[in-house]
User: Fold these one by one.
Assistant:
Number 1:
Amino acid sequence: MTAALSIAGVRKSYGRLDALRGIDLSVAAGEFFGLLGPNGAGKSTLINIIAGLVRMNAGQIAVMGHDIVRDFRAARRSLGVVPQELVFDPFFNVRDMLRIQAGYYGCGRESWPWIDEMLERLDLADKAGTSMRALSGGMKRRVLIAQALVHRPPVVILDEPTAGVDVELRRTLWRFMTDLHRNGTTVVLTTHYLEEAQELCGRIAILDHGALQVVETTRELLARHPFRFLRLKLADGAQLPEALQPLIAGEVNGVVELKLETARHPIGSVFTALRDAGVAIEDVQTREPDLEDIFIDLTGERAEARP
Amino acid sequence: MSPDRIAFVTLLKKEIKRFWSVLGQTVTAPVITAMLYLLVFAQALKDRASAYEGISYTEFLLPGLVMMTVIQNAFANTSSSLTQSKVMGNLVFLQMAPIGPLEWFGAYVLAALVRVCLVAVAMLAVTTLFVPLPVEAPLALLAVFLLSGAGLAAVGMIAGIVAEKFDHIAAFTNFFIMPLSFLSGVFYSVHALPPLWYHASHFNPFFYMIDGFRYGFFGHADVPIWQSLAWCGGFFVVASAVCLWMLVTGYKIKR
């Protein structure tokens, strides 16, 4: 089966800076794929190369089997990209902008009902005749998403589509992306909201310093590090026994979080150590590792923000 | 219609709509400016002997003013469109689309030609009552008009690709387009110039555009029409080749 996205040996340098150091990646048709990484990891560079905005120094990329250089027309017709920046053309209203975009991709009047449907589904119907320059940031983001989908591409790349949008819009976009995926579209998502990736993506790649650190299913990734977290609120004045000090992962408002390797540190052993040291506990909580913990482990950096 | 043709027609229509949505700026304003030039110069120099026998100074002036306006507006149309798209960031929509360099170039140049056609027709229509002009060589007139308009549209694209902000376009206009168009024989015949400037004028491509355009109306001009056509054609070919090379290689627009 033809891969939706096939990336082989892609390299890109800006002067002495190696933005991408040989990326090999394949995204199967129908996947919901997450591309994660800290700022400056090379995610946007990779997406811009796929979209035709940046020239690669070496390597090959194909979208639905179409080489993005030799067969750029077919490759681009198979691809929809939602750029990260809120760019717009101030001369046109929303509906005109979408019809123009459809025309660029060779779609004529037959695409107009689909445009109207997208306007409805993205809550843009009452803004269809509004000039792009008069829209709020959230509305412009919706238009960008509609623009990327106007030619019904089999592969869609969303570069941080939920950055800086309110909760309601984020939920609308999640629903929309999930529907797209359910209808067979391959979705590639980059986001700083790791809960979002964990919730939506079936497979995740983590990119750091221009190299892929890991490409695994979300389930494999979460099971990759067999540890869990134990949060303890100790009684007033109590100190954690010396033996448990190396396990401290963090401390907030008097609550100590211990990072326990499942095999080496069963939770029972912690309680035994506390009891032996005569330390009283006020409250206890456990937490399974989430994508953010894995992300920090692999990149040494914390994601920008949680939604 | 094939998808490629739909894409080309869409881009052409979009570029036309772009200048149409600000028609006051893109068509009416240049026509009024040119009319003011005509009014002032025709009044001030109406008693001056014309360069050509049987043709008044006002009649001599009008074709040059029309071509000067064509030159400036063909350049302005493509350069402002590209620069605005770059500054606003919306050029990515075009860069990501399955549109090849030739369609991109063709649509921008054709849209600029539509704009300068409107400007030229409006100027001639407004003045036809008080400055009626003959059309002695319509084919030469059309050829010089199209080659000059297309050549300047291509130069506008080059400037738009190279420019990173509107200041760069303003500099290009002020230091290249304006001086060359004012020193191209719009207001005088080059035969009236001192020898140095007379010879220097023959290296100015805009001189041949204006002189060739004037030939289309009166059937005679300062230099033979084949020479004007060769310069206009050569200018268009060189400007188009440079512009297409930039679009194919992604010069300044693809990092």
Note: Chain A has a mean pLDDT of 88.
Number 2:
Amino acid sequence: MSKKDLLLEIGLEEMPARFVTNSMNQLSDKIQAWMMEKKIDFDHVTAFSTPRRLAVMVEGISEAQEDVHEEAKGPAKKIAQDENGEWTKAAIGFCRGQGATVEDIFYKEINGVEYVHVRKFIQGQQTSSLLPELQHVITSLSFPKNMRWADEELKYIRPIKWIIALFGSEIIPFSIAGVQTSNWTMGHRFLGESMEITSPDAYEKTLMSQYVLVNSDERKEGIRNQLKQLEEEHGWVIPVDEDLLEEVTNLVEYPTALFGKFEEEFLQIPQEVLITSMKEHQRYFPVKSKDGDLLPFFVTVRNGGHEHLENVAKGNEKVLRARLSDAAFFYNEDQKTAISDSLKKLESIVYHEEIGTLSQKTARVRKLTNKLAGLLSFNENETVQADRAAEIAKFDLVTHMVYEFPELQGFMGEKYALQKGEDPAVAKAINEHYMPRNAEDGTPESNVGALLSIAEKIDTIAACFAIGIIPSGSQDPYALRRQATGIVQILLNKQWVLPLETIIDLALELVQEDNIAKKALEEIQKDLSAFFKLRIKHILQERGVRYDLIDAVLGNELGSMPSLVKRAEVLEKEKQNPDFKENMEALGRVLNISSKAVHVGEVEERLFENNYEKELYNKYEEVRNQLQNIADEKSLYDLLVSLKPAIDGYFEHTMVMAEQENIRSNRLSQMAKLAEIIRQFANVNEIIVK
Amino acid sequence: MNIQNMILTLQKHWSEQGCILMQAYDVEKGAGTMSPYTFLRAIGPEPWNVAYVEPSRRPADGRYGENPNRLYQHHQFQVIMKPSPDNIQELYLDSLKALGIDPLKHDIRFVEDNWENPSLGCAGLGWEVWLDGMEITQFTYFQQVGGLECKPVSVEITYGIERLASYIQDKEDVFDLEWTNGFTVRDIFLQPEYEHSKYTFETSDPDMLFNLFNIYEKEAHRQMDVGLVHPAYDYVLKCSHVFNLLDARGSISVTERTGYIGRCRNLARKIAKTFYEEREKLGFPILQAKEEN
């Protein structure tokens, strides 16, 4: 069958750069899904996008749908034919409905019953007659933000200006929001003209001739190469922030990179401020020397060619100069304000209406920091530093600079604290307490920063849970999940063995004291425990631990994070061993039966009826005594596994659920005591052994 | 090109596109959007094409005339077209050409910027227009005004006159801009800039301003009760300006802030709804006139 190419281009007013790539992929996916649903064969799909267009080219489309042969099932034989063997109304009606006659009927047995069937043949339609349905594919795209325009009802990413729909050289006729399909496209807004696309394969080339690089990957690589070229010409290093590159790629149709400069005196402002100002406000790439020092240059990518670049550079320099003057002004102003004055301002800043002011939050975090420092046996020096860091951690939030660049919170705190004579460890902790700031970020390096980070995060989480702000689905406005994960990661990296329950309870206690909670304490604790379990589960999954092993170590209290993860890792490793199954089954049997224990008392040797009971009891005592001297989780595992022969012997010769009440109860007590030490390692009966 | 000629050029350009040339509205406001020529007229089905210069007061931006980029009062050139014309981007770019800005010699881009004015219950989608990296225009398709869905949609184009002029005249300091005939922004506006900044940050009487807010708010409600949309709206504008003064003075805490904005928004919503109903009672006369033509 002969084949043709399809081209679809939606011309739009400039789309938001951040939505372009996803929208392009969506269009491509939906067109492919539509063709598959319609049983239209095709060879290859290419997607294109610029700020002003989303396009898809499909090569090698069959000119007709595939033919379909299928069997339609009708009524059962006893309904289809009456006692005389005549066709009933049911049978005749069925055939009519299928476009067949009773002559076509044959029987087929299904579950022992014979049913009427007819063969159907559906001839594939001409592809060209189906293609106008692409109209609905286009309007079915969904965008994070939609708009209406003029008198149109349609909500779309931006107003539609033109639509190309070509099948071979034929225009597929339809219209959307008053725009009729054609084979005319628009070139670059300033450098190009409108052009006729004679066939889909001419698309890319035609647009190129009109200064539109329609392939977004090529456009991106083009910018990357131009940046490299500038690096080589000037001996610079231009670090490529991929998010910025992606955004810039989607802001231009014909990219030309150019550089400008700014006054060297601005280099006195902290680098991060300069970089943020260049990137966030202006979408510039900052320029560094080969030694990594920031240079007074920037690179911007123009939507146009090489003409009049000096003009464009000059304009951009002017804008940046104004921006950096502002930054310099803020920087100087901030230096005039004492930390104590900033802290005073925190008293009037509401963190959350039901949680109170930033000042109140700071006070709670400070108390918690001190309590935790005690539990972690911080030395005096570190304790003093932690206290001070907690006290002033948020002072930079009321500085001009952070007001202007919120993403510099903590970073400016460190800078300013140092300038104002704070202990460097305190200053560093102010910056570190926001870490990890995102999924890629590390955890605090210093003990003081790590502790403050934990205290700050758990206070936020506890206070939010206390007023019913609990993340669900995509709803997590306070990024509580990231913060909870952060706490666990910090505990792991620091190898701090403080039980998570202790941290949670201390935080909740302070939240209670401030009368924030709107729920019963037990309920909040339960919610928090479930919430943290889920976070830990994710962390263990990322470390490649099998899900049932995760459930096993999460079966009881959370305890210390380093221990929990090590236990999971021991199981993950041990599951390879051939005796793993038998070992876990033995320990699991104890756990299973122990749940029947109603009252756990002392085990009385006089009630033993056989030697195996005695043997297990002795072994239990031995293991219990050794627990104190255990060096690590692997030794704990080995110690528990050493119970196996005694457990096996016991179950082979002993009936736990004995008739006689006192014997049964004594045996259950033994099981419960054993279970208690097994559970310190894991709920092994969660483990799936085959 | 001096500022006066810029304004004349823009007026001529948009007049040729069928806009009514209006004068600035005589109540203090923070932006051209707040003029009833935009806020009220963007509501409902009646067509509306206007252009006007709006002096806009932003007390918090006052810098005693010492900052080369920030002003207590700047000027906006505001264009509203309802329904938004198909070729509105081209019409806008033509206006830049009329101002002597040749797109081939510059880098002009439409960068996503969604606009919201919570105190008036307004929201729109659009761009800021960048000229060689400088934001010179806010370009917005109104989606909601006074809490009402816009049908049809108006497009709003707001040029920052001083910004654009500093580019066209290649000046670093806004006070060096020529207004006309050798008269500069300094000659005309430096003294009021200084005095208004001093008033805003130092000598204003917050107690009086709080009182005024309450009085204006009450009067707005009272006029709404008798269905007088325009007088009521004037008082909302006054509330908004008084609020801005208090905010700049640092007299409003963060919690209170939300409360005051909410009070303005409630009034604005009520006014928007009543304005629509009043126009409906009149049979949307501008729409009828257009259809009869």
Note: The longest strand of chain B covers residues 134-145.
Number 3:
Amino acid sequence: MVRFILNRLLLIVPTFIGITLVAFIFIRLLPGDPVILMAGERGVSAERHAELMAQFGFDQPLWKQYVDYVSGLLHGNFGYSYSTKKPVLSEFMARFPATLELGLCAIVLASVLGIAAGILAAIRRGSWIDQVTMGTALVGYSMPIFWWALLLIILFSTKLGWTPVSGRIALTQFFPSVTGFMLIDSLLAGKPAAFWSAVQHLILPTIVLATIPLAVIARQTRSAMLEVLGEVYIMTAKSKGLTPRRVIWLHALRNALIPVVTTIGLQVSVLIGGAILTETIFSWPGIGKWMIDSISRRDYQVVQGGLLLIAAVVMFVNLTVDLLYGLINPRVRYR
Amino acid sequence: MSATDDPHLGTAEQEPLGPPPIAPWRESWHYFLANRGAVIGLVVLALLVLTAIFAPLLAPHDPTMQYRDALLVPPAWLERGRPEFLLGTDALGRDILSRLIFGARFSLVIGLVVVALALVSGIFVGLIAGYFGGWIDSAIMRVMDIILAFPSLLLALVLVAIIGPGLFNAMLAIAVVLQPHFARLTRGAVIAEKNREYVTAARVAGASNLRLMVRTILPNCLGPLIVQATLSFSNAILDAAALGFLGMGAQPPTPEWGTMLAEAREFITSAWWVVTMPGIAILITVLAVNLIGDGLRDTFDPKLRRS
């Protein structure tokens, strides 16, 4: 097991170096002079220009710039935002909990509903339940989620008035931030009204963000379940006279869920892409909206740092899923 | 797929010596036709293609014509609706139906161009990696890993930020993001095939590297690639619409469906039809393509087919 873990850790080193290269090249590929880009429409004098070039190291040879960049990263320097003048890392940390809270709610909803729907469809294969579930899953899988979000807002926020249109919590609610998760912090502060407000704000974005992962997980669970149900050991279990319920829950499900874990892990990358759209539409103050705002504001150091940090998060999650996979599937470990 | 109508019965009686050379494709086609969803998807897609081709004949109005006396007219069947604007008009008085009809051109071309770019470059890169192996393989596949390490929409957004917003640049960016999937598939299939007897036989017979790669090995890897191409087609349409929606894809007044949605956002409370219609168009198109993709996957995967 230790060897397995070490192997996986070694594999991510080249990918991580590659990610830093992409982030490094990104700013240099932008058309135009980096300092003039930073200065924007105000422009910059010739002396100030040279000064800034030297300050950011743009006058150094490329390899030197890259080495400086990576050594900066290792010291926690991910650049500074042009617009707020704050370090990118602290801006990221300030917004990450919002995205994490939304993402966790979405992935839990998608996993629970998706696995349940997939099992149901598989054991009732060919029935109307199967057809309706898989039909719905296909629609969900094909959904342009930004449009789906607008539809939900039209129905639940403007027509019915059940949920707020945007934001994370009502502006009238105040409580200290401990964990960064509104749901937990409001309870810690002992404010049920604030908790309820946070829940209401979460419902629509969670549904929107969960839609595609939910469909993917349901489809994957169904086909994994069908594959397992055709295995010889299931026939053995059945012929031993075990009840169908026991066969499905104890013998089939355990093995069917192994590939589903990987699927859920792969959805994290999809979730972050979805978070860009979802957060933009619901004005959710997370990293997705932050990235879009920074791109349109041409705050390229933020884009560069954010790109790197997001890729690092995705890589970390994939690594965790890989290790988890080794833990639940002993066959992988000994290969 | 329903189990009752099994078109495989015809070939099941054949000698178990091995399938005849042409039959697998015909057999696949049979399976595909037996899949009701896939056929529906194919019919819808065909209708969309016809709509796109004959857009100027079908559209009742010019898609960019602004009728100043008909701003935000609701669909014809509603109160205040007008028969000449079947699906209503947008905030500038443009006929929504005509814009949707012309929008079909954009979505289908986006899908085609993106898949063509990603498929050709992915197959090229994957063939080289799989066929030559060694450090070439490692180097190429690490680059693919790096592309896949980023969430695809984010990477596409950043690429567009570098090369500038616009429909063509958005297509390029999406192709770059989708390409590694084709490269990985091709590489895997090539590695699985290249040591088979038929490849060795062709090599002994004097086939060149290029011929071995393209004529001998590649045709045997096509099944999964076709399925991936269909999935990428729908992904490309969705991603391009998302980029358009975020203002980084096609620019107004282009009647691209995602861009139309972006323009419609502010009328979410006052004029629901401006928001609803382009989304329905995107959903129907993507759904049709995904139905075809599912049908193809079932067709090419014998394991699923039998059960």
Note: The first helix of chain B runs from residue 9 to 12.
